[in-house]
UniProtKB/TrEMBL annotation:
<keyword id="KW-0456">Lyase</keyword>
<dbReference type="InterPro" id="IPR005935">
    <property type="entry name" value="Mev_decarb"/>
</dbReference>
<comment type="pathway">
    <text>Steroid biosynthesis; cholesterol biosynthesis.</text>
</comment>
<keyword id="KW-0067">ATP-binding</keyword>
<protein>
    <recommendedName>
        <fullName>Diphosphomevalonate decarboxylase</fullName>
        <ecNumber>4.1.1.33</ecNumber>
    </recommendedName>
</protein>
<dbReference type="GO" id="GO:0006695">
    <property type="term" value="P:cholesterol biosynthetic process"/>
</dbReference>
<dbReference type="GO" id="GO:0004163">
    <property type="term" value="F:diphosphomevalonate decarboxylase activity"/>
</dbReference>
<feature type="domain" description="Mvd1 C-terminal">
    <location>
        <begin position="200"/>
        <end position="384"/>
    </location>
</feature>
<keyword id="KW-0756">Sterol biosynthesis</keyword>
<comment type="similarity">
    <text>Belongs to the diphosphomevalonate decarboxylase family.</text>
</comment>
<keyword id="KW-0153">Cholesterol metabolism</keyword>
<keyword id="KW-1207">Sterol metabolism</keyword>
<keyword id="KW-0752">Steroid biosynthesis</keyword>
<dbReference type="Pfam" id="PF22700">
    <property type="entry name" value="MVD-like_N"/>
</dbReference>
<keyword id="KW-0443">Lipid metabolism</keyword>
<keyword id="KW-0444">Lipid biosynthesis</keyword>
<dbReference type="GO" id="GO:0019287">
    <property type="term" value="P:isopentenyl diphosphate biosynthetic process, mevalonate pathway"/>
</dbReference>
Length: 401
């Protein structure tokens, strides 16, 4: 039903979400297969605000495999991209050879593939584009060839964190122990409907490209940081259990505490790396202080921060606290007058702040310290997008427009 047969072309379009880890993945035990030194856990964000869309097409007319990313042709020989293509084709061949009669409804593996992908958020903003990107690619190719079963193992080989974007809601990536990586897979802990009050705010601090990418950064950390080793062996196993329990019980206090401690320890291992890696900047550190002062003013943990390999903050909170916290952010990081829309995503009403709250936070406002906020929530996993209007490739197999 999802294949528009046109000039012998089969085409499928899918979308996939971003995920933000609350137990961080940092460090590999196998670079080639992308096997981590510890398990990790993340929240899948809603695709209404952030998503990758990918169209894949095969045709006997295509002369070679090609890929377009955000409008421009990219290098198809990228090793991780090649691995994902190879693994999907291997599965498709295996199914064909097994004599499955359904497989005649799906295209033959020998045709070349055209891939066209776009992120609806700035790739340069440092918002986990590789996770949504590889999850989307693997999911779309699997739909094209009619493949089912464990696909997170393939997405993992595109980018480690991508395996977690293969599911919605609350997802763990079990590190596994086998050398072939077949047990290093993602699993959903709870679906997106489990904790409807949970909200996510992304405070975009800087749109610059990061100085050290995740892949090389974690390589250096594995080689040089004794703290990372201790963390992987002793701390993460314990925190995985506590975090899973906090999510199951919708215990925001514990969820928030572990999330912040995890972020801080991840950045501590970056500082323990030699030479050290700095992902946080002065604005990031001001956000951390602001969150702690805000929580202590209220005498309970209402918001939690987490930072990945960049200065942008991701805030987890509950819906009843969103309006006040966004107002606090606006007050202490007043937007540029003509800086464009400050709040994107789910609507947030303006409220007034008490003088007491303002004075208990007690820091100097930093104008334009935060560029904009994306307001979103927990969301589902990858989706098949039906209907030809969604396709990013035209009938000629080339990007539209
Ligand atoms: N839509 C996409 N489809 C396929 N690959 C993508 C897509 N978007 C990004 N990528 C791949 O991911 C790379 C960017 O990944 P990189 O790790 O540098 O940044 P990031 O994903 O934003 O951050 P991080 O992975 O550290 O959280 C791109 O160069 C490209 O190879
Ligand atoms: C800080 C992180 O976001 C690191 C993500 O690293 P990547 O998945 O981008 O790394 P590669 O496996 O080398 O592609 C933490 C996390 O998402 O768990």
């Amino acid at each position: 039903p999802f294949m528009a047969e046109d000039r012998n072309m089969a085409v499928v379009t899918c979308s996939a979400p971003v995920n933000i880890a609350v137990i961080k993945y940092w460090g590999k035990r196998d670079e080639e297969a992308i096997l981590p030194i510890n398990s990790s856990l993340s929240v899948t964000l809603h695709q209404d605000q952030l998503k990758t869309t990918t169209t894949v097409a095969v045709s006997r007319d295509f002369k070679e495999d090609r890929i377009w990313l955000n409008g421009t042709e990219d290098n198809i020989t990228h090793p991780r991209l090649q691995t994902c293509l190879r693994e999907i084709r291997r599965l498709a061949r295996k199914r064909r050879n097994s004599g499955d009669e359904n497989c005649n409804t799906f295209p033959t593996v020998s045709y070349k593939v055209h891939i066209c992908s776009a992120n609806n958020f700035p790739t340069a903003a440092g918002l986990a584009s590789s996770a949504a990107g590889y999850a989307c690619l693997v999911y779309a190719l699997a739909k094209l060839y009619g493949l089912e079963g464990e696909l997170s193992e393939i997405a993992r080989q595109g980018s480690g964190s991508a395996c977690r974007s293969m599911y919605g809601g609350f997802v763990q990536w079990v590190m596994g122990e086998k050398t072939d990586g077949s047990d290093s897979i993602a699993q959903q802990i709870k679906p997106e409907s489990h904790w409807p009050e949970l909200r996510v705010l992304i405070l975009v601090v800087s749109a610059e490209r990061k100085p050290v990418g995740s892949t090389t950064g974690m390589q250096t950390s594995v080689k040089t940081s004794p703290l990372l080793k201790h963390r992987a062996e002793k701390i993460v196993p314990e925190r995985m259990k506590e975090m899973t329990e906090a999510i199951q019980c919708r215990d925001f206090e514990s969820f928030a505490q572990i999330t912040m401690k995890e972020s801080n320890q991840f950045h501590a291992t970056c500082l323990d790396t030699f030479p050290p890696i700095f992902y946080l900047n002065n604005i990031s550190r001001r956000i951390i202080n602001l969150v702690h002062k805000y929580n202590s003013h209220h005498g309970e943990t209402r918001v939690a921060y987490t930072f990945d390999a960049g200065p942008n903050a991701v805030i987890y909170t509950l819906h009843q606290h969103v309006e006040e916290f966004v107002e606090v952010v606006k007050h202490f990081f007043p937007p540029e007058e003509n800086g464009g829309q400050f709040l994107k995503g789910l609507p947030v009403k303006s409220v007034s702040l008490s003088e007491q709250l303002k004075s208990s936070i007690q820091t100097d406002p930093v104008k334009a310290g935060i560029q904009y906020i994306i307001s979103t929530k927990v969301g589902p996993g990858p989706q098949l997008m039906e209907g030809p209007n969604h396709h990013l490739l035209g009938k000629d197999g080339l990007p539209k427009q």
